[in-house]
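Changelog-adjacent note: as of this version, every example in the card shows the full chain rather than a window. The one below runs 468 residues end to end.
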Amino acid sequence: MKLIADGILVTPAGPVRGDLVLDGGSIADVVPGGVASRDGFDEVYDASGCYVYPGFIDAHTHMQCWTGMDWTADSFESGTRAAACGGTTTIVDYATQDRGTTMPDALAEWHRRADGTCTANYGFHMAIAEWNDETKADIPAMFDAGVTSFKTYFAYDHLRLPDDQMLDVLETIRPGGGILCVHCENGDLVDSLQRRVFDAGVTGPEGHPMSRPAICEAEAISRLMYLAELSGARVNVVHLSTALGLEAIEAAKARGVDVCVESCPQYLILDDTCFLEPDFQGAKYVMSPPPRKPHDRSVLQDALVDGSIDTLATDHCSFNLFGQKDRGVGDFRKIPNGGPGVEHRPALIHTLFADELGPEDFCRLMSENPARVFGMYPEKGRLAAGSDADVCVWDPSVAWTISVKNQHQAVDYTPYEGFEAQGMPRYVFVNGELAAENGEPTGAKPGRYVPRHAGCEPRRIDDGPEVP
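Full-length structure tokens:
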């Protein structure tokens, strides 16, 4: 057995100083005040001065993904290794049923890419690019395989579904307790605005945010809210980036729509001035949706603090600046969309919100709520006897600088270059095995597939602690 000793344990009932006992892949005991004797433990890890969290969960990644033009820079091997170095012990990646394929085939392909290679645990959402009788008939098989969340798109011609099919998807997954994650951008408007911006002579990265204004997101979110209301199904708005989109969500919540809200660090830290960096450096930030105006950033920061945002993910979708994104020199429409972030999310959020959020809030946003929403709770997302031994021992005293030079993501830049971070994982355990220490990988690959059940409501910021 392993002992994590003398830490501040972030438990469902609140933080408490004590010890955590791991036995194989499970938490054997949570001991406020500490164990009576350390005799009999195979390994003892000093957590003094640290917060001990249930491992963080990133429920929005794109590893080892072919876009039709490029493979993402990170494989499951490199991406989950980087995730663990930053304190994330589980990712939920988007498998994609491309047109002309089936969902079981897509799931088998994503297993082929991930199985046996991962440092962190991994589950899969299923993105649906084609909806027909055969696809509909495969939904029960997805639930049986532990895939209980799905994704559809309002944008991208090769992925988006019309509204009537979107409604049918919602109605089909609702009886099983499934949740639909939706990329909310009005694809018709984006396609038209891209042509207009380019034809007006704006060809550099700054054309990207100009062609995807906030109203494109807000309109699509509003449409999703009405479809969700009509179907009665649960929905998850992914990568919320705008104040206008948040307004549409809050109006829907007031009508009783069952909606969860995800945002990402890039929309809390960056704004659209990043696209003006010289020498094509602005291409680093070409992702969809793009970083927005300072007003949007400020509104989302407030929403995170007041509990309007349920989960924080990354939308990690890495492409190298040289050899991939630079194919869009002279035409911003050809820059691969996506950016890295899976390694740095915990440090970014702990640093940025150190004065507004406490350890229970960080746990709720990056561990407990993702586990609840996506059907992994209570096995994951809490420190309690019987839960999985996925643990992040977070040392808040470490000051360091985020840089491409010290990252483990397999990409040639980070959007957060030079960010002065406060806090780093001292130890990260995945299924009870030490996967990273002081921000460096141990070489272990204990990650395994996480089949998921139907999710439950996220815990809101004003709900108070849960009594275990």
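Structural remarks: DSSP finds 13 helices and 17 strands in the chain.
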